[in-house]
Amino acid sequence: MAISKLENMAEMVKLARMLGLERHAVSYLATLPPHEIRRLREAALKRMFVRDSLMFARLAKASRLLPNALVAFLGEKVFGPMLAARIAGEMPTERAVDIANRMSIPFLADVAIELDPEAAKHIIAAMPGERVRDVAIELLKRGEFITMGRFTDYLSAKTIRTVIGAIRDDEALLHIGFFMESKHRLNEVVRMLSDDRLRNMIAHAQEKPTELWPEALGLITHVDDELKQRLGDLAAEQDEEVLAGLAGISHQLQLWGDVLPVVACMSAVSQTRLMALPILQDIPVMEGILKTADENQLWEALLPQIKRMSEGQLAQVAEIATSLPEAAQERILVAARAAGLWDQLFEMVASLPKPKRKTLEDIVARFARLDDSLVDELSGQAKRHGLDDLLGIAIAAIGAD
Questions:
Q1: Taking a C-beta distance cutoff of 8 angstroms, is the pair 174, 8 a contact?
Q2: Cβ distance 192 to 161 under 8 Å?
Q3: Within 10 Å of residue 46's Cβ, how many Cβ atoms?
Q4: Number of helices followed by number of strands (H, E) in the chain
Q5: Between the N and C ends of the chain, which has fewer C-beta atoms within 10 Å?
Q6: Res 266: pLDDT
Q7: pLDDT given for residue 361 in this prediction
Q8: Helical ranges in 222-267 per DSSP H
Q9: Is residue 234 within 8 Å of 266, Cβ to Cβ?
Q10: What predicted TM-score, i.e. pTM, was given to this entire model?
Q11: Alpha-carbon torsion, ordered 188, 194, 199, 200, to 10 deg
């Protein structure tokens, strides 16, 4: 399976942020799978915290000699956010929460930026929801979407609802969702949002498509199939001009590997509307889609869309398919058989003029020779689609050998 460009992008941004670098400084990692970049980031973060953990544990222990109010004052006025963040992870939960409640919201936001959420998850989970909400609003003012995304995993559903209710900027929700650490939590978070808020998020994506459409798509691709359909259908409700713009960005940024699984989950009405877009009849765009489908093993997601295409579009797709390497054409056949998509495949073949069918005839015939049980199956499909003249005869000849 090919690397998800969107997930890879999010992980590189988070790594660069942690190291205090610009994103381009880690661009050489772009070929790594996202989980490898995340492992590198987590290992580096752990190294930073573990290195001096004994010293911070001693400071936390020594602080027990002082009243919590004084520790909060010293933390904010003397030690600063970085030391406070390191010491907090070494404190008992109840005491750490009491001290945090005595600190100002701006300072707690500073601490949150320096904090390792995993090391302080017991404290994060125990913080009052209203306090978390106020810190979140402060972080939002600063554009600290990465910090907010990293903390989401450790908050209760009730606290997340409180924070979402306080965030009026739906564009910000896109940014936060893009940087969430555990994507499985997105299902829970997205279900907390009304259709109106989700539509607003999609509207923001269309206003800044180069910047925000990848983030919106990154959110959609990581939810379950039920939510993929809900979000995909909401996107498909947009004006044709908007959809064409989003498709154009997907082509420009080569995001079809993330788009196709979403399209596969959408309703038939939405799929038909998407397939009718003029931009999807541009040869370079369709070539990019077919190439991506092959590289990402997504033929089972793309082939069902054939029945949504116009005759002209279908013929165009079929002709592009004949120009693919033979290995790719064989992968199409394998996917069609595995997913029970012979009808779609033969419909595509039938759209070709007779001279063009010869290329696919050779591929199908070779494929049939590899598995004798396919001969009757392929011959029957050929007859159903009126292909006895060329393809059907070739397949039947194999059976007679």
A1: no
A2: yes
A3: 14
A4: 27, 0
A5: C
A6: 94
A7: 67
A8: 225-236, 240-252, 256-265
A9: no
A10: 0.78
A11: -100
